[in-house]
């Protein structure tokens, strides 16, 4: 696993309309904590931020340089024992929590790898962020996070 404090926190900041600052007690998605900063991922070993945006711009920032496409992916397989239990649960109905957890962890790992790839190019932002999923082989799933690595400059 990459050295990120909490992958879930990165996803929460990604999905929150206004990102909570590091000092903010608000840790829930869609938090109303006020901050002028956009959603960002932060590593444990540095306070440098990688701003993540699903659109091609970031309010309050100017794109100075596009550094190319970056991606992060992971391919996971399901546990045979859990797969059997999930098969039994499918007769009853309801959420298959073990699959939900596997999918969430896979998305988080793909996002962590995308942020690491952006940092390796010297980027402080990723715009046009997208997720894709697919099946590589039977009983496997691939999760891909991709976008354009950019250098951003805060507007005055």
TrEMBL record:
Residues 25-45 are annotated as: Disordered. Residues 32-44 have a biased composition (Low complexity). It comes from the Eukaryota. Signal peptide: none annotated. InterPro entries: UPF0145_dom_sf (IPR035439), UPF0145_YbjQ-like (IPR002765). It holds the Pfam family YbjQ_1. SUPFAM superfamilies: YbjQ-like (SSF117782). Belongs to the UPF0145 family. This is Uncharacterized protein.
